[in-house]
Amino acid sequence: MIAIAAALLIASGGGAPDTSLWTSTESAIAAGTVVAALAVMPLDERIRDAADGARSEASRGFAAMAKPIGDGYVTVPVAAGLWWLGADGRFPRLARASRDGLESWLLSGLVVQVAKYSLDRERPSPVDGSSRRWHGFTLSDRNLSMPSGHSSVAWAMLSSYAMEFSDRPWLAASLYAVAASTSLSRVHDQDHWMSDVVAGAGIGFLSSRLVRNWNARHQARTAVVPSWSNGRSGVTVVSVF
Q: What is the DSSP string of the chain?
């Protein structure tokens, strides 16, 4: 996380997002997430078994580093710190991306929790775990495999920065790669099925786009213009509702 934060600081500058809230791109992402998760489901158990057979000390170390990126206890304080660092015009793009990331985390978290408790899918187990066991609505936190919360957090947070700094392809690609690594770590550790992390990634990515578009739309309806009255100059904030 420290390396990511440093890279973001180096790349800070200007730029503005689109102001459309929901476009054909968002529709494609939503549909693609559903289709991809459904397509992967028949392979969930094979992928789990393959991951189990490929596990090594190196892969365990990699997963241990990738997993915390999807932990809100880690990413939220870092994003909040970057937001504060970029405030007051010091690094406007950094502040905007951090704000979008935090709001995306909240939105994706709400969607993920509703889905988890509504579906109550059993988590993978090397002994008798079945990807086809769904128990429906529950108030218990015993299973809750679909979708992956860590995957959603990683994609919601890091996509917000990647989109803000899309003019730095190396940085955007690195952030998406880290998010993908977090998703794969959940399959590696047998905490989620592959379809769980695909769904979580899609929810997180779509949340980050919606939040970014919403905030851009709001900013586009607010303008600061110079004013002159009774011999005094100043500024006026004009909002269109």
A: -HHHHHHHHHT---------SS-HHHHHHHHHHHHHHHHHGGGHHHHHHHHHHH--HHHHHHHHHHGGGG-HHHHHHHHHHHHHHHTTTTSHHHHHHHHHHHHHHHHHHHHHHHHHHHH-BPPP-TTT--TT-B--S-S--S---SS-HHHHHHHHHHHHHHHHTTTSHHHHHHHHHHHHHHHHHHHHTTSS-HHHHHHHHHHHHHHHHHHHHHHHHHHHTEEEEEEEETTEEEEEEEE--
